[in-house]
Amino acid sequence: MGQLHVKAAEERFALSLAQRQGWGKLFYTVGTCLIGLLMIIPFVWMLSSSLKRESDIFVYPIQWIPKVWQFSNFREVWQGSAPFGLFYINSILVTFWTVLIQVLTSTMAGYAFAKINFRGRSFWFLLYLATMIIPPQVTLIPKFILFNWLGLLNTHISIILPGAFSAFGVFMLRQFFVTLPSELSESARIDGANEFRIWSQIMMPLAKPAIASLIILAFVWTWNDYMTPLVFLRSKELYTIPLGLDYFMDDSGTEYSLIMAAAVSAVVPLIAVYFIGQKFFIESIAASGIKG
Question: In the record, which residues are listed under signal peptide (predicted)?
Answer without folding.
Answer: none
